[in-house]
TrEMBL record:
Keywords: Hydrolase, Iron, Metal-binding
Keyword Metal-binding: yes
Domain Calcineurin-like phosphoesterase: 1-199
Gene3D superfamilies given in the database record: GpdQ, beta-strand dimerisation domain, GpdQ, catalytic alpha/beta sandwich domain
Name of this protein: Metallophosphoesterase
Regions that span the bilayer: none
Protein family: Belongs to the cyclic nucleotide phosphodiesterase class-III family.
Flavoprotein among keywords: no
UniProt cross-references to InterPro entries, sorted A to Z: Calcineurin-like_PHP, CNP_phosphodiesterase-III, GpdQ/CpdA-like, GpdQ_beta-strand, GpdQ_catalytic, Metallo-depent_PP-like
GO molecular function per UniProt: cyclic-nucleotide phosphodiesterase activity; metal ion binding
Pfam family, one: Metallophos
Entries under CDD domains matching the protein: MPP_GpdQ (cd07402)
Amino acid sequence: MLIAQITDTHITRERKPAYNRVDTAAFLERAVAHVNAMEPRPDIVVMTGDLVDEGSAGEYAILRDILAPLSMPVYLMPGNHDERGTLRAGFPDHAYLAQGGDWIQYAIEEHPLRLLALDTVTPGRSHGELCAGRLGWLADRLAEQPERPTLVMLHHPPFPTGIAHMDRIGLLQGAEALGKVLSQHGQVQRVLCGHLHRPIQAVWHGTPVSVAPSPAHQVAMDLRPGGPSAFVMEPPAIHLHSWTPAGLVTHQSYIGDFDGPYLFRDGSPAA
Ligand SMILES: [Fe+2]
Ligand SMILES: [Fe+2]
């Protein structure tokens, strides 16, 4: 099973450039074409939050149009830039979005890898939280099928990344309790996150966690304690997660026109 993870697409009102600089809609169009052109084609797409920039209905309408050419199921999750009500209203045919009641968190059962999406959103704030209710839901779902290989997805990475301005708006509540739940459930193959706009891997409370880059702008890699909140136009990318009985393998797939491929044998172009 192949899972394409697209995160932090930040679609803006009337496709205006984000931060007066980033044409996020055009970047997402390229990501959609990239996924559709992959051979073999991914079986599903997961989008781990910050789908749009301000949570407005118009932004979700643009998002919907741009995602329409994707030929496989797409699973959406909110990030701190999203708004639950307008997200649900914009995608009424995505029935799983209604599962979580007050939260957008859900279980997807029909694939070889079970998907559990957790909602870390704190309305009106940039940081993430997991309250006892949301964590209890996760613990209950994991206890239902302890033998079933499972992916857990949440927007805010649960650990400090060392990028100070992002850590200040990280998962500020519930992270340790989440770590405890994960450490009790060995079927979790990986925790998938967004929010950081750059690729990061960690093993946290014994569970591998990966953070995917954005198909648009990346957060600058700056580990100075006083580093400014800044982005860079490093190459756009998505994660491609390959699940087989041998385990979960993740590739970073860059989006763009790059020279090659050339055959190693004689340097001629590969078919
Ligand atoms: Fe983001
Ligand atoms: Fe975010």
